[in-house]
Write a structure and sequence with these properties.
The structure is a homodimer of 647-residue chains. By secondary structure, chain A is α/β, with parallel strands linked by helices. Chain A is built from 18 helices and 28 strands. Chains A, B: Pfam families: Fer2, RACo_C_ter, RACo_linker, Raco_middle.
Chain lengths: 647, 647
């Protein structure tokens, strides 16, 4: 038995004991030491770097560690095994990762414009953004020796008089605050109430004179990224917005690895803690702080997440989701309160969870479908959500069909060495000057902003341009030479998009063959899924009237380029619409509107779920789609033309 | 600034920092060091003894510490101030206190008999001991690739089919257990449900084959003692019973000191933790363990406690209770769930709190009144609950009047040097042999049990006999000499009830003049309250038809002796009835029966509350009653006769 001491930059060390030959990443996980490992220990992502600062460790050198770094003690923890006592420095990658992701959706003018359009279209589809919350101002007589009615009775009578309703229920958290609030407000208070059919629910009591806002949260819980809006439930106004990395990332990049991790001893608690305590609570705190409302001033929460995220959030066993016959614990549930999840707001604050429709199509898709409006039109539409999981919905006002595929985090800039979210410093579009073949970049941010990395739309452009100009081949391999092309000691090629002198970075902003391969697999997963779903309905791409693309890929997405590389079907460009983070927009609508909640349930119930993983054709289709644009080039005549034009 | 190190017998030391002149008890409290201090720092009880084992401490010697003890380092912490670094040994008195109280109500055959009689009388008064809980056995089809309905929908449909009800709600905690329970039971389960008017509430899911009991808890939360019954909600059977000291005791012996403590920074949390985490949770754990049911198998809790105990339990500001105009936050509340209090059982387990009727008459009295049956009879009855607070209810089926007085813990054996609860080793009755004047004791327990201390009924007998035989005078002073009479260095006399050779104790079992004085003040409080309440209604004692005496004083209470010393009115003995812990019996009924809950609310609403503390006559009446039997001897002709017979 050896002693392994994990050291951190900002916290106390953790002492662990391990046997010879144990895997270091496993030892770390067993001892609750957070090491970022999106590939979950397959030595493919290179993110689980730690530094050996004392003792010994048996560890291969991989392509992710340079000679110099190895000499400095850097190791990948997933390929390291215990061979003696060791002192390990763990970089705070998880928190670095989270801050890298800490960019609000709706942070650019373009995104806000898209959000407002989506909101408008929801209203036009007949969904009133109205709810049953209101703020009630009350004035009572102060008690005296001749009027010794207890506080709650005094208040309930005042509510009765003001509302004309006789059945009134008071939340525990309101009761707890009551004596202080009444006396602070000199028996004049503002009450947060819900006007329900059966009774009036009294959720909070705030002394008169203090600011009283009926706050609500719309949260999109993605496998990789979590985004939230703090909303005024009376006006619908967005009071604050924020995003962060999903703290569960350390337990694996995809839902399957998360589920596996959750089935270990104490795992369910660990995963719930990672999303609630480490992700949502700091996010909510930040939003409340920004909006200057108290952290318990949240009276409804609406969550849109995939089926696994929903299960891990609720703390219910998710294992049946990944095992045949793939059965979730719930599609719909109305029994979850915020306090059940450990979010200490009003004791009667409910968590609305957008309904799941299958093991791999969840509330993010029902919410997104609601936002897309395809359920309300006669035309045949395709809705595509490009996240860590890619999900598709096809149909119209009469039917809806859905399926999911695992795309990985590439669309959100994950799994890509210079990947980042669509925010300041992100290269969101890219082309090669036809004459000089030198890059022409567009960078998000103020004029003069230097590039930092690539967001999803930028990656599509880069791959498209390199392919069209013959710098990479159909397999994504670099087949050209030049000052922008490097090869490392393992022979892996890369293309420099911006030299470090021109970038806001300590190294070149580049895309590697590994990055390109990761992205091609992601786009291949999406395209093959579209293909299988349409053909199972005896449809082909020509019959699609509209395509709605959603996800964190960025509003700058060049649909033409996405088609050119074989990610989306080769149909006329005017049929494509980018609708931003539709899961978040849908959550916003469901948060605000009883009618939207009703509608999203209806959408979920009427959607037919197709399980891709049991489809015998899927693997073949996927392999065929992992080329630029596809092994069957006739599916992409536009690409053929572009290639011909550049020959 | 000096360093004070508190050392304990069974746990790690606590290091604290304090300024010169700070009070040691205060320093301990600030640092969460538990020192038993029932008198809350007034140097009167002598319980806050600690031992100085290093450094210095400025401390008076009081009558509670002998010369020898002082030399050994024993000090009263409430009269000690910081004068330098110090090392303090804190005896584990709080836990000793708790274990001293760890005797179930209903632990003797006599008590059980009384409980059964009370239960029978409740039923005879027309209260059906029935509720809406039941256990539903369900069998479902297992899911398959062709039948992928999620778990909760599968279960809800089965419940719908079995009950014929369409509106079904599932508790969060049931959802969380669902996938595991279904698979463990091979899709055969037992559900704990409530058949409510508006819907069926599904509270728990238990795999078929596992033991399923619908557990409920009836809890009497006294200022000094907490008693609980674990009950099968289907049958009413008592599965386990237990008592313990109220962990809040370290913050003061009476409600006023508890409230003051709760208003300090963090105080409300501290007091709630003391009753929930330190008192109820271990008690509940013990009961569940004894009954062999899982610790979350509690589906309803009914609490009967005084107004202050209820407020501190709920965690609501209790300060307005003690300040004019004495306003509680609530009389009735139905918004409290067990999880709100930190009792982790089913998320839909409600806490029924027997309603309060005034700032000093609470749910223990409404529950006790329900149990006494006085609300159902035409005769005028007096109900007296002898606890740390003494409460009275007078009336009949047409009216009820109530008031409270602060009696202190003497009736439960507290504040008495050899006091204890009515359990094995307690002297529960005492008389002097008319010839030899030697004590004749009756000791609870198996034959041969040696005496350990005095319970409430024993104290009454001792004081009565010593008074009648002229050993003490009307002021409670020892006015006789003999081998059983000692005086300490301060001249305080004591009477030896059992020499240590004959006792199960390391010292003599004795009663001191201080004990007698404490008890006389307690009985004086009770009698003066009775007197004032009756006269305010223009009644006198001769018009009382029945007296029901309740409380932890013990079933052996000799009513005749209680009358002789002037504690209870001098009326014919056959009018007196001892009904045990009526608060607990009432809680049991309310737990089991919707009708009882309804009735106790009605009782509470119809009861007129009289505030004694603002009554100008109270102090005079109290002083007059602090004699044996009373300054107005004509109120107690029977005592006169007894004294005459012994002269």
């Amino acid at each position: 038995m050896f002693t392994i001491e994990f050291r951190f930059e900002n916290s106390a060390p953790v002492k662990a004991y391990a046997h010879e030959g144990e895997n270091l990443l496993e030892v770390a996980r067993k001892n609750n030491v957070a090491i970022d490992a999106p590939c979950s220990g397959n030595a493919s992502c290179g993110k689980c770097r730690v530094r050996l600062i004392g003792g010994t460790l048996k560890s291969e050198k991989t392509r992710h560690i340079t000679e110099e770094e190895y000499a400095e003690g850097w190791r990948l923890s997933c390929v390291s095994t215990i061979s003696g006592d060791a002192e390990i420095l763990v970089p705070d990658i998880a928190s670095a990762y989270r801050s890298r992701m800490k960019v609000a959706d709706l942070s650019t003018g373009k995104e806000i414009e898209i959000f407002e359009e989506v909101k408008q279209s929801i209203v036009e589809a007949g969904i009133e953004l109205k709810n049953d919350f209101s703020l009630l101002e009350l004035e009572m007589d102060s008690p005296s020796l001749d009027d010794t009615m207890p506080d709650n009775e005094r208040l309930l009578r005042a509510v009765e008089a003001a509302t004309g309703r006789s059945e009134i229920r008071m939340a525990y958290s309101a009761l707890r605050k009551l004596p202080d609030a009444l006396r602070k407000g000199d028996f004049k208070v503002q009450c947060v109430i819900r006007n329900l059919a059966a009774y009036v629910l009294l959720m909070d009591v705030i002394p008169m004179g203090e600011k009283a806002t009926i706050g609500g949260l719309a949260i999109d819980i993605g496998t990789t990224t979590v985004s939230a809006l703090l909303v005024d439930l009376e006006t619908g106004k967005i009071l604050a917005k924020g995003s962060t990395g999903n703290g569960q990332i350390r337990y694996g990049a995809d839902v399957i690895n998360r589920i596996i991790e959750s089935t270990r001893v104490g795992g369910r608690k660990k995963l719930k803690k990672a999303i609630v305590d480490e992700t949502l609570l700091p996010l909510i705190d930040g939003l409340c702080h920004e909006a200057k409302i108290p952290s318990d001033g949240i009276y409804r929460i609406c969550v849109a997440g995939n089926t696994t995220m929903n299960h891990l959030l609720v703390g219910v066993n998710a294992d049946p989701i990944r095992m045949e016959p793939y059965i979730p614990a719930f599609f719909e549930t109305n029994s979850v309160f915020a306090v059940d999840l450990g979010i200490e707001v009003s004791s009667s604050t409910r968590v609305r969870i957008a309904p799941n429709v299958g093991s791999y199509v969840g509330g993010d898709i029902t919410a997104g479908t609601l936002a897309s409006g395809i359920w309300n039109r006669p035309e045949f539409s395709l809705f595509i959500d490009l996240g860590t999981n890619g999900e598709l919905v096809f149909g119209n006002q009469d039917f809806l069909m859905t399926c999911a595929c695992s795309a990985g985090p590439a669309f959100e800039g994950g799994d890509i060495s210079c990947g980042m979210r669509a925010t300041d410093g992100a290269i969101d579009s890219f082309r090669l000057d036809p004459a000089t073949k030198e890059p022409i970049l567009s960078v998000l941010g103020d004029p003069g902003q230097k590039p930092v990395g690539l967001c999803g739309s930028g990656i599509i452009d880069v791959i498209c341009e390199l392919f069209i100009h013959g710098i990479i081949n159909a397999k994504g391999q670099i087949v050209s030479e030049g000052p922008r092309i490097h090869r490392n000691e393992y022979g892996i090629g890369s293309y420099v998009i911006a030299f470090k002198e021109d970038a806001d970075s300590v190294k070149d902003v580049e895309i590697t063959e590994v990055d390109i391969d990761n992205f091609i697999r992601a786009k291949g997963a999406i395209f093959s899924a579209i293909n299988i779903m349409l053909s199972s309905l005896d449809f082909d791409v020509s019959m699609i009237d509209d395509v709605y693309v959603a996800g964190g890929i960025g509003s700058g997405i060049n649909m033409k380029n996405a088609v050119t590389i074989g990610m989306l079907p080769d149909i006329p460009m005017e049929k494509y619409h980018y609708i931003g983070n539709s899961s978040l927009s849908g959550a916003y609508a469901i948060l605000l509107s009883e009618q939207a909640m009703h509608k999203v349930k209806e959408i979920g119930r009427n959607m037919t779920y197709m399980e891709l993983s049991t489809n015998p054709r899927y693997m073949d289709e996927f392999v065929a789609a992992c080329f630029l644009p596809h092994t069957n080039a006739s599916l992409f005549p536009t690409t053929e033309e572009a290639l011909a034009a550049n020959r």
